[in-house]
Design goal:
Distance between the termini: 39 Å
Order of helices and strands: HHEHEHHEEHEHHEE
Strand order of the largest sheet: 3-2-1-4-5-7-6
Shape: elongated
Number of helices: 8
Helix content: 40-55%
Largest sheet: 7 strands, mixed
Structural class: alpha/beta
CATH class of the largest domain: Alpha Beta
CATH architecture of the largest domain: 3-Layer(aba) Sandwich
Amino acid sequence: MNAQLHFGYPWWLSYGHLVVAGLTGFLFFVGYKRRWSKVGMVPLGALVLWSSTAFLATRFLMDVNGRASLPTENFLRSGTGRVLDMGAGTGRSAIMVLEARPNTTLVALDLFGDSYVQHFGPGTSPEERLLANLKAAGVEHRATIQAGDMRKLPFEGAAFDAIVSSYAIDHLNGAGAQQALSEAARVLKPHGEFLLMVIGKDPWLKFTFGPLLLHHGTHGAEWWTNRLQQAQFQVVEHGMRPATLYLLSRKL
């Protein structure tokens, strides 16, 4: 099924460094044969080494266009319940949850606005692209798609057993992120679980992309813990995965 999944992230996230490695590697080979001076060869060699290493990191450590796995098995250990995916995008995190917890149902929510096209490129309608991935993964019968703003969720209070949000809330500024977290608490049942995944302060990420993936700026676990506590959550676990900071919390 992997061949049918198209999460829509730009090609340069997975293969851009390989293009740089190919071009600089060719120039390095030509320079070696023609005995160019060290002044030119040393920077070329450094570029070949950086781009090759960065390609391996993005392709095999981050793999943004591949299937995602739960960063912690402690999320929704009951294996059942109604889950909300806040900022579902093309369905990567929704599929992650539905495959890991086969007895759950899920609502995939996204604003489906201009930012959607900016992140995932043009194509069929956002809802159609999301549905196509859900069908490719074989989980469409347990998922529904809902248009809505994370900062003002179109649901009644205590409507969900758990919430997941991956690389979405950190696109908002500080006030917007706090609104989204407060809305998450409102629509969760008492003691419901919230798995938040954001771009983390990962040394590999800085080495590979520099400032290109910083959204509104990366924050550490303490910053996000404070915001979650303000929204009446208790953080029970946090950790790092390649390029990702995750925090598992429960509604007080």
